[in-house]
Amino acid sequence: MTTAEIFEKLRSLQDVLARKIELEREINYIPKMLVTQEELLQRLKKEYIEKDIERSATKTVEMELKNLLFEAESTREKAEKHMDAISTQREYENLDKEIHDASEKESQYRKEIKQKEQKIRELDNDMERKKELIDQQDAELSQAKADVEAKLAERKKFLIESEAEEKEITKNMDEELLFKFERIVKKKGGNGIVSIKGGVCSSCHMILPVQFANSVRSGKEIVSCPYCSSILFYEESSEGEEAYFDDDTAGSLSDLEDLDEEDVEEEYEEDDEKMMDYDE
Ligand SMILES: [Zn+2]
Predict the structure, then answer these.
(1) Who has greater pLDDT, 166 or 271?
(2) Confidence band of 219 (pLDDT split at 50, 70, 90)
(3) Which residues pair with 195 in a beta bridge?
(4) How many Å lie between the centroid of ligand 1 and the Cα of residue 99?
(5) pLDDT higher than 60, residue 136
(6) pLDDT of residue 259
(7) Is the pLDDT of residue 255 over 60?
(8) How far is the CA of 227 from the centre of ligand 1 (A)?
(9) Which of 90, 104, 124, 156 is spaced 20 to 30 Å from 6 by Cα?
């Protein structure tokens, strides 16, 4: 396998690996889209249960009030019957007070029972609305889950295809080189093999020593950037290339400190454009 062939394979591999990274990211992210909807459903269910508990408690109080009302009614009716059999003024006053007190209690209990009945009606309405929301949310969540399942299945299918493609590309390639390359691609979010132009690494934008750049240019061996570990290949630059290689003093490591910021920015812009061209 020639160096050019290896470069070609690495570039294909880089695309496949970048696609795999994106697919793995999506497979990890997609199920999280359900979290908000699941939380909303849980909250609605919790609120419904709270309303139901409140309704039971109100119902209990209502029953107690009805018992008390019944007792007060019985007391009053009994006293009213006794009225026919009294003989003294004192007896009359006692019974009359008893009837009066019982009547007052009755009207108080009736008022409270009415309030409880009203409360129960409100709770029933609340619960009915909540039930509708729960059913609706339940249906939406089921649909969302089905969508997520479908998306995941699709991504997983693509991932398997990418893995098969990766296997095909990496056949007969040096394992150590592959191991190193895949690690760089993962670390750099997709960039493992980049061009060197004007003696500058397209990934980290550092100026490489002339001897080093020449070795990349010769294409006789696989060389990694000493700064960012990206594998480097030579790409013809439209201008300034010859000047760079002809000038023995340019781009040596000791020059790095002397480089002023403006120059660095210009290099960046040029390189970014070239990188975009390359991406396409
Ligand atoms: Zn670099």
Answers:
(1) 166
(2) confident
(3) 233
(4) 101
(5) yes
(6) 41
(7) no
(8) 5
(9) 156
Spatial contact of 15 and 169, defined as CB atoms under 8 Å apart:
no
pLDDT at 249 over 50: no
- What spacing in Å lies between the alpha carbon of 93 and ligand 1's midpoint? 109
What distance in angstroms lies between residue 226's CA and the mean position of ligand 1's atoms? 7
Ligand 1 centroid – CA 225 distance (Å): 5
199: which DSSP letter?
Answer: T
Query: How much is the pTM?
Result: 0.65
Ligand 1 centre from 211 Cα, in Å? Answer: 15
Q: How far is the CA of 278 from the centre of ligand 1 (A)?
A: 16
Residue 43: count other Cβ atoms within 10 Å of its Cβ.
11
Question: With helix as H, strand as E and coil as C, how does 31-70 read?
Answer: HHHHHHHHHHHHHHHHHHHHHHHHHHHHHHHHHHHHHHHH
16-170 maps to which CATH number?
1.10.287.1490
Distance from residue 90's CA to the centre of ligand 1 (Å): 113
Ligand 1 centre and the CA of 195: distance in Å? Answer: 9
Residue 13 has pLDDT above 60, yes or no: yes
Domain boundaries of the chain, sorted by first residue: 16-170, 191-279
Q: How far is the CA of 51 from the centre of ligand 1 (A)?
A: 64
CA distance linking residue 279 with residue 269, whole number of Å = 15
